[in-house]
Design goal:
The protein has about 220 residues and is an alpha+beta fold. About 45% of the residues lie in helices and about 20% in strands. The chain starts with a strand and ends with a helix.
Length: about 220
């Protein structure tokens, strides 16, 4: 390599394709879904900002460092502490992923109480929790296309709104997949957002009710 290595501008990413290169010196073997801490980036031509290779380690094994192609990594936002030889990186979670984690924790307590009172809803909530956990894993992997990620975020929000309404929890007002700030919106705007959440709940229940009825009859 005749170019130059520079400190990485993007420090954190997710592997989008398996990288196995036994013939490349100092190559770091990677598997899809792994997360990496990027330390340096290789510029083949210092006059441009095109980066072809990266040097770093996986988050799960920071002792083993090596190089890997830049095109195999999907970069994600992160915070960097103690920047330098002993730095650590922490990913900035997507708002929907963070909400899914919070919802699953809160639902878990209330869901157990349904077993005696409402067994049919108990089973339905269990299925929805499983789907939300699956969405959370897929969204966090960053291996989805932009269109597929938006589709899954939309589905997850509908499920969370529906579950919150069934469990007697407050509906969460959102703007573009993030919780709305009431200080930045008018009363009319907040009302419209709340109406949309209620509509999501009703639509989700209409879709899920036949499944619950089928299980009951079976």
């Amino acid at each position: 390599m005749s170019g130059i290595w520079k400190p990485a501008r993007h420090k954190y990413g997710v592997v989008t394709s398996n990288f196995v290169a036994n013939t490349i010196n100092q190559a770091l073997q990677l598997y899809i879904g792994e997360t990496v801490h990027v330390l340096e980036e290789y510029w083949p031509d210092p006059k441009t900002d095109k980066v072809t290779w990266l040097r770093g380690c996986t988050i799960s094994n920071k002792n083993k460092k090596g190089i890997f192609p830049c095109c195999y990594i999907a970069f994600k936002e992160c915070t960097v502490e103690n920047e330098g030889p002993f730095e650590t990186v922490t990913p900035v979670e997507d708002a929907v992923i963070t909400e899914i984690i919070f919802v699953l924790r809160e639902w878990n307590t209330r869901w157990k109480m349904l077993f005696v009172e409402r067994k049919q809803l108990f089973q339905t909530i269990l299925l929805v929790m499983g789907e939300l956990a699956k969405y959370r894993t897929q969204l966090a992997s960053s291996t989805l296309t932009r269109e597929k990620a938006l589709e899954q975020k939309h589905s997850a929000i509908i499920m969370m709104d529906w579950g919150n309404s069934q469990l007697g929890l407050d509906l969460v007002p959102r703007v573009e997949y993030q919780q709305a700030d009431p200080d930045q919106l008018s009363v009319v705007e907040m009302f419209r957002i709340h109406e949309q959440s209620v509509h999501n709940c009703q639509g989700a229940w209409t879709e899920r009710e036949p499944t619950a009825q089928q299980r009951k009859s079976g």
